[in-house]
Design a protein that fits this description.
The chain has a domain at about 1-100: RNA polymerase sigma factor, region 2, helix turn helix motif (Rna Polymerase Sigma Factor, Chain: A), CATH 1.10.1740. Helix content is about 70%, strand content about 5%. The chain has eight helices and two strands, in the order H-H-H-E-E-H-H-H-H-H. Helix 6 packs across helix 7 (about 175-190).
Length: about 200
């Protein structure tokens, strides 16, 4: 009888811990979900893959929650897990470069690529010009090594400090500085990106 009471107490504590964890993660997703998606998108260059990568990282965070050091930034820890999930996915899966016609056009969420092929696409030239610029930027970022692409995204696009990036990627701060410098040098060669990295 006593062991049943202990089991119920432990079960209640586990439920309370899970509820607290879920509340923290829910707030984190509201605060950083878009940044995490953008980071994942820049790594994968595909919206669906980016969504799956973020979901995989959240799943890993939930599984490893009992090992989370709460004195450390949840954002840094999450981006570390996200980066590791990306590296693991690169090892497992061959990358395919294609875009589905029903995929939403970035910058025009109510339109998909298939819309530009239909008869009713009045602003086809504008879509093509924007798509051409986005393609050039994406290609310039994709030509960077994944390590450089990651630091540029975290630093320039997510506003993380060098120290936070170093913690997220598991490298020294000096390595982060070096990678940012080299990535900026490579991106300056592209006129569209010259202002972004200044």
């Amino acid at each position: 009888m006593k062991s049943t009471a202990i089991a119920k107490t432990e079960f209640g504590k586990q439920n309370a811990d899970a509820a607290a964890r879920n509340e923290i993660l829910e707030k984190f997703i509201q605060d950083c979900g878009k940044k995490a998606f953008r980071f994942a998108y820049r790594l994968t260059s595909n919206a669906e893959d980016a969504k799956e990568l973020v979901q995989e990282a959240l799943y890993r965070v939930m599984l490893a929650w009992d090992r989370y050091d709460q004195s450390r930034s949840l954002k840094s820890w999450f981006f570390t897990v996200l980066w590791n999930a990306f590296i693991d996915s690169q090892r497992r899966v061959k990358r395919w470069n294609w875009i589905a016609l029903d995929a939403p056009v970035e910058g025009a969420p109510n339109h998909c690529y298939g819309d530009s092929l239909s008869d009713g696409a009045g602003d086809l030239a504008r879509y093509l010009e924007r798509a051409e610029d986005e393609t050039a930027i994406r290609q310039a970022l994709e030509r960077l090594m994944p390590d450089y692409r990651a630091v540029i995204d975290l630093w320039q696009l997510n506003g993380m400090s060098y120290k936070a990036i170093a913690g997220s990627l598991g490298v020294p701060v000096g390595t982060v500085r070096s990678r940012v410098c080299r990535a900026r040098r490579a991106l300056r060669k592209n006129a569209l990106l010259a202002e972004m990295v200044e």
